[in-house]
């Protein structure tokens, strides 16, 4: 009996000791669980090194499908557009907005944390026998009602941001193609003007020899020198425009302005009339900016639904417990209910309805502008095609006249002024034709961009076809 009594006493002592040790351990575990859900901070300093690359070869050339863009060979406008989308620093900053929108979707799905309260009243005197203890835990139940539509609204806004970023990428690609076409035209204009300057220099040299020999008057010879000075100025203007376009293209690519950019001859195919009409009919399902507006309208619908659900009385559930100074312990639930008498969230509902109407009108206006812009671009291309054909004929006649004038001048059948005028006309006609080629190519790029040519059809569920 004594042995069993000692064993029982030892067991009770160990149990009591274990209980005393378990309390702080449980407290530490609870604290660890609470801290596990807290975010931690880590400093992330900015990179102060200049980000522009020294050459096109040092850019990112990897396409999403695994193919690589050749960097050493002359680059087509389409290849430069792809490089711009991959490497444009401004686009990299815009893509960061997608991460923010996705974080907002995560935040919208979180429920409010329960609220825990406690109180202790020390016994200082009187007939009571113990201090009072009180505690409660409450949870907002109204957020459960609106959680689904809030998440849908956040997801729609995240899709809207992604579509807007895609539209920026589409615009950057079109801008890079247009700059490549413009730079090619600038370089061709410089070459054409250099050729005309060479012809005038030869004529000036010949005219000076004729003046020295007494076969030509000074006023006739001065016309060639004046025209040469005019062509020098035109050539300088074309060279300055080439530098401007090269600098703008380098900025889109993320390279330094002095980085060499080798251009291939632009080949911008024309859209068939039937294709253009079909693309116009499906603008709202293809163009990323219009798709973004549709996602915005979907978010507005979800916002209105949220505001309507929020009209229902706000409900909060609380569980209270404690003991008073006479050691009477109680525990039980309590419900808090807001009565929708004066406010009832009617103001927010009205704002949500008006916002949805405004976004619907904005979408209709944007769709109409896109349709009109595409139709106007098609008409402009048709007119440019006719004007380009006429410019080609004028250049052919000017080329023929210059060849005949060269022989006639050497045979003393025309004077230097006449040949100078014909060389000037040839240079003007050649740069005019180059300008029409540039405008047509740029117009085709603009039309394809306005129509979203090459982009898949997208519905609001995110599927493509």
**Portion in helices:** 55-70%
CATH architecture of the largest domain: Up-down Bundle
Computed Rg:
39 Å
Task: Quickly name the level 1 CATH class of the largest domain.
Answer: Mainly Alpha
The biggest beta sheet is recorded as: 4 strands, antiparallel
What separation lies between the terminal Cα atoms? 87 Å
* Strand neighbour order, sheet with most strands: 1-2-3-4
CATH fold-level topology of the largest domain: Outer membrane efflux proteins (OEP)
Q: Write down how many β-strands occur, each being a DSSP E stretch of 2 or more residues.
A: 4
How large is the count of helical segments?
10
Question: Quick gist of this model?
Answer:
Strand 3 (315-323) and strand 4 (329-337) form a beta hairpin.
Can you describe what's shown?
The protein has 465 residues and is an alpha+beta fold. It folds into two domains: 306 residues, Outer membrane efflux proteins (OEP); 61 residues, Outer membrane efflux proteins (OEP) (Single Sheet). Strands 1-2-3-4 form a four-stranded antiparallel beta sheet. Helix 4 runs antiparallel to helix 5 and helix 4 packs antiparallel against helix 8. It starts with a helix and ends in a 14-residue tail after the last helix. The N terminus is likely disordered.
């Amino acid at each position: 009996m004594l042995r069993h009594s000692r064993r029982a006493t030892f067991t009770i002592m160990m149990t009591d000791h274990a209980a005393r040790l378990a309390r702080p351990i449980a407290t530490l575990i609870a604290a660890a669980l609470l801290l596990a859900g807290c975010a931690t901070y880590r400093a992330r300093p900015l990179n102060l090194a200049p980000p522009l690359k020294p050459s096109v070869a040092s850019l990112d050339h990897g396409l999403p499908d695994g193919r690589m863009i050749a960097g050493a060979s002359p680059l087509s406008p389409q290849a430069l557009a792809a490089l711009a989308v991959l490497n444009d620093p401004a686009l990299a900053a815009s893509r960061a907005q997608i991460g923010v929108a996705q974080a907002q979707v995560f935040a919208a799905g979180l429920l409010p944390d329960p609220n825990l309260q406690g109180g202790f009243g020390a016994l200082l005197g009187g007939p009571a026998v113990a201090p009072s203890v009180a505690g409660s835990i409450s949870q907002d139940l109204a957020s459960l009602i609106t959680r689904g539509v809030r998440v849908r609204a956040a997801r729609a806004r995240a899709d809207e941001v992604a579509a807007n970023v895609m539209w920026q990428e589409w615009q950057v690609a079109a801008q890079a193609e247009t700059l490549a076409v413009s730079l090619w035209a600038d370089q061709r204009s410089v070459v054409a003007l250099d050729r005309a300057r060479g012809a005038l220099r030869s004529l000036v040299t010949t005219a000076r020899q004729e003046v020295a020999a007494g076969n030509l008057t000074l006023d006739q010879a001065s016309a060639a020198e004046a025209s040469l000075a005019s062509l020098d100025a035109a050539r300088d203007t074309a060279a300055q425009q080439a530098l401007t376009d090269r600098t703008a293209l380098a900025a889109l690519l993320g390279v330094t302005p002095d980085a060499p950019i080798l251009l291939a001859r632009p080949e911008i195919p024309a859209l068939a009339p039937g294709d253009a009409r079909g693309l116009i009919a499906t603008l709202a399902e293809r163009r990323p900016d219009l798709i973004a507006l549709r996602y915005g309208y979907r978010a507005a619908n979800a916002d209105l639904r949220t505001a309507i659900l929020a009209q229902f009385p706000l409900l909060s559930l609380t569980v209270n417990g404690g003991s008073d100074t006479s050691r009477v312990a109680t525990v039980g639930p309590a419900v808090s209910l807001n009565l929708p008498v004066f406010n009832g969230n009617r103001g927010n509902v009205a704002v949500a309805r008006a916002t949805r109407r405004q976004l619907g009108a904005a979408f209709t206006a944007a769709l109409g502008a896109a349709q009109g812009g595409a139709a106007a671009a098609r008409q402009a291309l048709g007119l440019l095609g006719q004007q380009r054909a006429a410019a080609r004929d004028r250049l052919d006649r000017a080329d023929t006249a210059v060849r005949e004038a060269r022989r006639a001048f050497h045979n003393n059948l025309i004077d230097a002024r006449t040949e100078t005028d014909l060389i000037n006309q040839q240079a003007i006609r050649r740069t005019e034709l180059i300008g029409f080629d540039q405008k047509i190519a740029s117009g085709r790029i603009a039309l394809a961009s306005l129509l979203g040519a090459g982009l898949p059809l997208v519905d609001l569920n995110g599927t493509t076809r």
